[in-house]
Amino acid sequence: MAILKLYGSSFATCTRRVGAVLHELKIPFELVSVDVMNGAHKTPEYLEKQPFGQIPYIDDDGFILYETRAICRYLAAKYPASGLIPTDPKANALFEQAASVEVSNFDPSASKAGFQLMMKGFGSPYDQAVVDAQLEILDKKLEGYEAILSKQRYVAGDYIFGQNFTLVDLFHIPYAPLVASGGSDIMTRKPNVARWYNELVARPSWLAYKDTGVQTTTEY
Description:
Glutaredoxin, 9 helices
């Protein structure tokens, strides 16, 4: 069977999210670097695979899939023993609830602030006003996270079904670390959010590519 290919950019946020899940599942993969700075993601050849001209997409032995969370769900479903997607109907409903929380309440502000902070880290022009405004919104959203995490270890966990780490926790990578960069304590000022966040960024799946960006990985 051909090795899975991940088409993306090493330090791009969505590529890093998929890379974390691949590492979590110990799936060998080849990173095929897409030169987004020179428009490689807008060529006819690329658009044939990803019609929106975005990164990343995967080629899993001829199966093409794009959209980051769809890719992550596919990988977790392919390796169900990982438990990253619960199969019990009620546990899965709690998982889907948490997934909706992430995409609706965390990602909008975290991604806007995180993008600006990423540009700052690269030494490129950035908008501090956007960072400040979005972190203020995010801080309010994290009050909900604090309430959730005061009762359970992970965002999709529940005492009935155990304190299981799931794909939803990984969905918060890489924006949670990004918004925590530049001296902000937004991810650590609330005790239960801080506990969860510190555990998240200590996982080998994040640390593996934290400084180097996503790299081809055939052995774990």
